[in-house]
Amino acid sequence: MATAEGTVVFPHLAGATNWYSPSFSPRTGLFYVPAWINTSATFARRPAEYVEGRAFLGAFPTAADIGINGTQINRRLPEEGTGAVVALDPKTGEKKWEFAMTDITDAGVLTTASDVLFSGGREGFFFALDARTGALLWKAAVGGIVQAAPMSYAIGNRQYVAIAAGNSLYGYALKP
Q1: What is the per-residue pLDDT for 67?
Q2: How far apart (Å, rounded) are the C-alpha atoms in residues 41 and 20?
Q3: Which domains, from first to last, does the chain contain?
Q4: DSSP labels, 62-82
Q5: Chain centroid offset of residue 134 CA
Q6: Which residues pair with 127 in a beta bridge?
Q7: DSSP for 37-52?
Q8: Other CB atoms closer than 10 Å to residue 149's CB: what's the count?
Q9: pLDDT tens for residues 12-61?
Q10: pTM
Q11: Exposed (0-12), middle (13-18) or buried (19+): which is 67, by Cβ within 10 Å?
């Protein structure tokens, strides 16, 4: 129950994993989720004013409350929680591997038919992992936090991967 002093809950209100796009690979048989590890939130009762004609979300936290503006990179301390991409066996729920990040993530996950996984996070990197092992294959600094899901497309016989980070859109051509 929320009190004026606040009640600490685990995991954070954004959850261990939440709306961030997961991915399933029929090639590996694994389900991949971006996750918040060891995060908490304090729920406190506070006044919320209703104004007719405006959306009312109660005293829901704003982007300023939780430090999100698209450019703030890696502001959390490890004791405040970290992020990870986690590979799960959907038949058993068993964790197969985990790629640890130093900050939480709001990014989605994309897997390709070549067993490459793409994601990013608040650290300001876009990266590629081996979808079978979780090994880091490549990463690029993108100058802002990644809060989107990567997308893939083809032009002719060339495959590309794109990601929105901060206030920019990045496109990468994959090796044939």
Answers
A1: 46
A2: 18
A3: 10-43+67-173 (2.40.128.630)
A4: PHHHHT-SS---S---GGG-E
A5: 16
A6: 119, 139
A7: ES--EEEB-------T
A8: 19
A9: 666 677 778 999 999 999 999 998 877 777 777 777 788 898 877 666 55
A10: 0.79
A11: exposed
